[in-house]
Amino acid sequence: MDITTEDFRRHFDLLSDEALLDTNREDLTEVAQQCLDEELAKRGLHAAGEEVLSEDEPAADEPSPDQEELVVVATYDDTEEADGAKALLDEAKIPSRLVKDAADMEGTQMELLVPATDLFKALDTLGLHLSDEELAAQAEAAGMELDE
Description:
Number of helices: 6
Largest sheet: 3 strands, antiparallel
Order of helices and strands: HHHEHEEHH
Distance between the termini: 54 Å
Strand content: 5-15%
Shape: elongated
Number of strands: 3
Radius of gyration: 17 Å
Oligomer: single chain
Helix content: 40-55%
């Protein structure tokens, strides 16, 4: 089985910040090192565990997408379907992250997370709709109140 660059990218995208920072770069192939570096840069982290600030990052008092609470916009059993949904959000410039569902004992489900403030835009982009109960739970998780 050949491992592709995209396989490495998907792997590092699924890791938590802590696991990503704990990855021993010297143990990786050159391609894997490049993918690790890309993911670290995308998250604004560097191997020493300190955040790297760039000119286009928000000011300290302005929350960045990484600091916002993330909510589940969709759950997928199929990796290709999950990757396709993430690609749609990326194309729409909606920050998102795919993670393995911690409650899934078989380890096959993936959750697509977005900042709470982008939930409705992400749902619209993906053509999804929430039930009233799901909508209320997501709003509560995001700290918003809904008018009844």
